[in-house]
Amino acid sequence: MVIASTLINWGALGEAFLYAAIFAIGVVVVMSSGIHLYSRSEGRVGAQKVVNLAGAIVALLIVLAVVGLSIYELTVK
Amino acid sequence: MHQSFMLGLVVATALAFDFTNGFHDTANAMATSIATGALKPRVAVGLSAVLNLVGAFLSLAVAATIASGIVDQNFITLQVVFAGLVGGILWNVVTWYLGIPSSSSHALIGGVIGAMLVHAGGHAVLWSGILSKVFVPAILAPFVAGSIAAAATWSAYRLTRKVDEAVGKKSFRWAQVGSASLVSLAHGTNDAQKTMGIITLALVANGTLHEGASTPTWVIIACALAISMGTYLGGWRIIRTLGKGLTDIDTPQGFAAETSSAAVLLASTHFGFPLSTTQVCTGSVVGSGVGHAAPVRWGVFGRMAIAWLFTLPAAGLVGAAAFAGQSAIGGNAGVIVLAIVLAAACAGIYVLSRQTAVSPENVNAEWTGEVNETHLTQKAA
Prior knowledge:
The complex is a heterodimer. Chain A is mostly helical. Chain A is 90% helix and 0% strand. The radius of gyration of chain A is 19 Å and the shape is elongated. Chain B is an all-alpha fold. The longest helix of chain B is centred in the middle third of the chain and has 42 residues, at 165-206. Chain A binds chain B through residues 3-4, 7-8, 12-13, 15-17, 19-21, 23-25, 27-29, 31-33, 35-36, 38-39, 42, 63, 67, 70-71, 73-77, and chain B through 55, 58-59, 61, 128, 131-132, 136, 140, 144, 148-149, 151-153, 155-156, 159-160, 162-164, 167-168, 171-172, 175, 178, 182, 185-186, 189, 252, 255-256, 259-260, 262-264, 266-273.
């Protein structure tokens, strides 16, 4: 246990775990919500269709932005 | 003359290792996309190959030497690096034959440690570095990735439970293409850099480059091409185990697993924890099964875990034997004999693998318990 605590920076590890969890679950939740909204837009007309489609597009743009940031992170590390 | 010959052989063997690293790790990014049908097998490995090629050029920072913090750099010679590469390549080829995803980096580290133990003894090996850089991350990686993937998978199914099945499947397929591409890109950046580091180390050890010199452009191009060609070859046996052997994967699971893998790899790199891509991706696939309450074949996962435990000592034994063998013969003859033995062993395993060939045509055949099932020779419909 003493060896483990001197060799591993558990605080930084916890931080890495937290960021990874927020990134992964966040992206999946946003993308799934977008798919849900896209599905709801089908078979609807007028304002409801536009609102649902707009929501789906926003979700997709958020995911693309996160992916873009990730690629940037890869290049500067 | 001997030194120049040795350098050429080390560079060629390092590129061969990079090639095996490519086909060994294609599964990490593409196994779930192939299993769910999001991408056709040949398209998947082609896309992965291109992204590995691009990834290798993305970060042009000086590649960190893979042995840094593992062995005393002052004792490293071209012979040690060569024997270490032999250990790494053989372990990669054997585990590919068995269809087991295992860490190429750990195999290479094991090979170098084995060779170093014979060359300079135990004092040249930094044991605390092995514990903190290899063993602890190997234990943590599958649990960290698996728990995140389980939560992400559960969220995906929960949020899309009212979505029409066909719409959901089609949408998640596209999402999977994106998430798998990100993992491929990350793999190209990470793993090609490791071989660049090995070749740079060899060039410095030979006096061709001065210490602290940046990686030459030809090394970057050669490593990028080697890893992408290996990726395009497609390690179908490992793709099959990861995509079909661990659990039955549907598109939301595949998307959640790949996104979790990408997130864990990015975060661990950012915070300086060297997690194995293979162990992270395997953990994510298992987590996606747990998150969907799908049956996980724990026996298959157990076999992988055992292989992970044996990676370092097994590659180390080969590395040690390789170093001892080439030293006993001595000179150019020693390294030539070792190179011939390595080539013959790889060719033998390849010929053996043809008896139960796994190809793009049968990679998605129903899982029956073993990657070496003879029925796989008959192409799946």
